[in-house]
Specification:
Length: 205
């Protein structure tokens, strides 16, 4: 889904709204199809062989680079423009680094939500989902990166989730509502789709 930008052509081919990419594709619909195919395959890889990391911002960026590195030169790097979508204004580009560092430092200080009771864990993961959604640190591919990172985090904490089982429109609406201060539906979606699981085998480095 396209973002609302200060300048629609930022990072795009001249006279288009198609992002500059390694394939030289200049049609947005064609690029979206290519993106979907590549990131689907890359996501499947990460299900079997997750990227090791410390659940910090560098880990988050590494997932984005893995997903989009074959498509964009800037994969894994922070956006330099301000973006919004469907009335939600995301963190300003100049503030991303500072807010991200605060977010991931807090995550570490809470031991990645390990040992939390189910309801407490739901509250914590919904809050983290909300913050990383508002952060939206990349020019494109934020939702896909966020879901993979959070899936790994959830498993590391001893729970499990399958985002593919959640209706994407319902999740989008709940996400928009949370950006406007109403998290009830987002909490319900996580509560209904989280399950207990074995400790995730990803080791922190």
């Amino acid at each position: 889904m396209a973002y609302d930008l200060d300048t629609l052509t930022d990072d795009c081919y001249e006279s288009t709204t198609c992002l500059i990419n390694k394939f030289g594709i200049r049609d947005s619909a064609q690029l979206a199809e290519m993106e979907a195919a590549i990131t689907f395959a890359k996501s499947a890889e990460l299900e079997h062989l997750p990227i090791k990391g410390s659940f910090n911002f560098e880990h988050y960026k590494a997932i984005h680079k893995h997903l989009f590195g074959d498509i964009y030169d800037w994969a894994g790097t922070i956006r330099t423009i301000d973006i919004s979508k469907k009335g939600t204004v995301f963190v300003l580009a100049k503030d991303i680094e500072q807010i991200a560092n605060s977010c991931f430092t807090r995550l570490k200080s809470e031991d990645f939500f390990r040992g939390y009771s189910f309801d407490t864990f739901c509250d914590a993961i919904v809050d983290f989902y909300y913050v990383t959604n508002m952060l939206h640190p990349f020019r494109e591919g934020n939702g896909r990166t966020q879901r993979i990172f959070i899936s790994q985090l959830i498993r590391y904490a001893g729970y499990d989730i399958d985002f593919s089982a959640i209706d994407p429109d319902e999740l989008m609406i709940a996400t928009i509502q949370s950006a406007n201060g109403v998290r009830d539906n987002l909490f319900r979606l996580f509560q209904q789709n989280l399950s207990g699981g074995e400790d995730f085998t990803l080791s922190l480095t």
